[in-house]
Amino acid sequence: MSIFQKLFKQTFIYGLATVLPRMLSFLLVIVHTKYLDGAVTYGKVSILFSWILVFNVLLSYGMETSFFRFLNINQYKNKVTSTTAISIIGSTLIFAILSFLFQDFISTLIGIETGFLTYVIVILILDTLVIIPFASIRAQERPIRYSVIKIINVIIYTVFNLFFLIFLKGLSEKIEWFQILYKEDFQIQYIFISNVIASGFTLIVMLPFYIKIQYRLDKELWKKMMAYGTPILISGLAFAINEHFDKILLEWILGKEKGLFESGAYSACYKLALFMTLFATAFRMGIEPFFFSHAKDKNAPKTYATITQYFVIFGTLILIIVITFSDFLKEIMIKKSEYWDAMMVVPVILLANLCLGIYHNLSVWYKITDKTKFGAYISIFGAIITLSLNFILIPKYSYVGSAIATLAAYGSMMVLSWYFGKKYYPVPYNLKKIGMYLVLSIGFSIISFYVFDSNYMISIPLLLVFLVILYASEKKELKQILKK
Questions:
Q1: Cα separations (Å) of 240 from 247, 278, 306, 383, 480?
Q2: CA distance 12 to 33
Q3: What secondary structure letter does DSSP report for 131?
Q4: Which SS3 state, helix, strand or coil, does residue 298 take?
């Protein structure tokens, strides 16, 4: 089996672990937008999850990437797992103690009600403790086990969401026992209780990992992992700001009621970009261990160039497909028309996430050369653009300004990573082909969505033209890869 076949196989399996849960999350978008009390309530949920994702980065502090990096160094191979596990357990315990002690202060500081904050803290603790067990499974190249656990987690979360939001009220009216569980105006709490149950189950499944390892902390290794991981932490935090902080800023800048409504509408339509996000995530899950394990191959740069080219091919195709059928997807996923005004941001967010996916592919150079500080610099630059443009554009353009800020941040990060990569780890990217696919897909998307309002008489022929161009350009290369 060629390295490309192996990579695509693992990416496909990791893709299942990403796609299937996200497909269930599509179901939850339908449920939440239909059964929650409007965009304001959905906005509250979106903002709470945004805070969770920001703190997830802080609590992992780059240890997952450090784990992969040092696991491939022979002198540390037998010490990495235990050292990483001890570090994560210790830091999570400190976080738990401090967050519960200063819960009221944190609540006031970030504007989350104390009752909701309790759920946020518990979810963060549970999710942090499974980071390294999941990384270990990926390092062992066991994508099926990884996928099954991830999928079961989301199934549990989805089932309890359906139970609490749709069925519990009716059951409580018929069966006395269910009256204990049912409370009026408890929709947001039910969503986070479902998350706690799912995350708790996942941690229980992962407990054998913590039972089997020998707890020995190598201080020298830990210091090196922290030094390597700190720029990753900064990069991750900047990414979290780029990806999630705009929902928070909409509330802060526009005020409570309007901000929550705008954040809810924006977050719901943002979900249509999930097709691009899940593709990019699945691809990244497959290539991150691959990049490190093949870093010493003499043909590595050429391999990385080919991988990036095919990422762009599939990414641009996804962009056009989602744009073509955006009206159909909107009516299926977002049940209330009060959310639909924010549909205008969908092409912008899709393109932004495509740029982010390309950036992740380009970022191989600073990861395998141990120049992760450049990742931090680039990410900080992106975060500065995100925050600056959000503060400038939100007062006048609301969530459209947030979408523009996201695209500007990810686009600039993509360009900067390519620019610095040429100097420190040259990769022979086929810029003509990559540029052609990007220009065609962006141009066709603008014509289809903004000029002809997703008219199928225009958008479907444009999609077919793009498919023909892809086939004509790539058929020889695809046949060669599949034959290897």
A1: 11, 16, 28, 9, 39
A2: 30
A3: H
A4: coil
CA 116 to chain centre: 23
* Helix and strand element counts for the chain (H, E): 21, 0
CB atoms within 10 A of CB 316: 24
CB atoms within 10 A of CB 428: 10
DSSP annotation string for 214-281: -----HHHHHHHHHHHHHHHHHHHHHHHHHHHHHHHHHHHH-HHHHHHHHHHHHHHHGGGHHHHHHHH
Other C-beta atoms closer than 10 Å to the C-beta of 298 total: 6
Give the pLDDT confidence of 391-424 residue by residue, as tens digits. Answer: 999 999 999 999 999 999 999 999 999 999 888 8
The beta strands (E) that lie in 143-229 are given as none
250: closest CA among 345, 347, 333?
345
Q: How far apart are CA 484 and CA 480, in angstroms?
A: 7
DSSP assignment of 363-422: THHHHHTT-HHHHHHHHHHHHHHHHHHHHHHHHHHTHHHHHHHHHHHHHHHHHHHHHHHH
pLDDT digits (tens, 9 = 90+) for 145-164: 888 888 899 899 999 999 99
Report which secondary-structure segment, H or E, holds 274. Answer: helix 274-293
Task: Answer for the pair 57, 237: CB distance below 8 angstroms, yes or no.
Answer: yes
